[in-house]
Each structure stands twice: as structure tokens, then as C-alpha cells.
Design brief:
This protein has 115 residues and is mostly helical. The chain has a domain at 7-62. It has helices at 13-20, 25-39, 48-62, 105-111. The longest helix is centred in the N-terminal third of the chain and has 15 residues, at 25-39.
């Protein structure tokens, strides 16, 4: 981006916001704090180069070969403290259904019901 002739076009508030809006929420939230830190310095505002530096750092953090993947491993067949197996969640049913029974008039009469 340093080779772009008119880098000042990228430093407009609208362009900066449009770049930040493409990031996931967690990174947008982190950027907001970073931008606040930058703006607390006298006569300084967040620039496009600051966003690039921020994103490069977040990529390095996320792709770290040792600590990059911090997700918990899925536990299959885990036991609760009580020793019973963890119940498997059932998929939610779509739509609705109901059942009913019916009898004909002849059947009701043969059963001795009044109706």
C-alpha cells in the first residue's frame, strides 16, 4: 500500500469505516479500542496504515503454530460427574403435528355411547 500514489484517499473516515466493517465483530471491537488509543495521542488520528498494522498483528496471533488454535477439542462420550453418559441432543423437529382418533356414529351406537 506504500506504493499507492494517493494514499490519502484511503485515510478518509468513510474508507476506514468500510474496511473495518468487513472484519468479524470481535476484531471490530478490538479495533475500536486500538483506534481510541491512537486518538488519545496529541494531534493523531487512526490512519489506513494503522489498520494494516493492526490486521497483520491479529493474523500473526491467529496463525501462530503453537497458540493460534485455542478451540476446545470436541468431547465424545464424555461422562458427567455422576458417571452417566452425556445425553446426545436431538435435532429440533420442524413444523408441527398432532394425532387424533375418531369413531363413526355407528361405532358409538354399538358401544352404547350417547351423542
Amino acid at each position: 500500500m506504500k506504493d499507492v500514489y494517493n494514499l490519502s484517499d484511503l485515510n478518509t473516515s468513510a474508507k476506514l469505516v468500510s474496511v473495518i466493517k468487513t472484519l468479524p465483530y470481535k476484531l471490530r471491537d478490538k479495533w475500536r479500542a486500538k483506534a481510541c488509543d491512537i486518538q488519545e495521542k496529541p494531534r493523531k488520528r487512526a490512519m489506513f496504515a494503522d489498520i494494516v498494522t493492526f490486521i497483520e498483528r491479529e493474523v500473526r496471533i491467529t496463525t501462530d503454530p503453537v497458540f493460534g488454535d485455542i478451540q476446545d477439542a470436541p468431547v465424545i462420550g464424555a461422562f458427567k460427574e455422576s458417571g452417566r453418559a452425556k445425553p446426545v441432543p436431538r435435532p429440533k423437529a420442524r413444523g408441527s403435528s398432532f394425532a387424533t382418533t375418531f369413531t363413526t356414529v355407528e361405532e358409538r351406537c354399538s358401544l352404547g355411547e350417547q351423542g
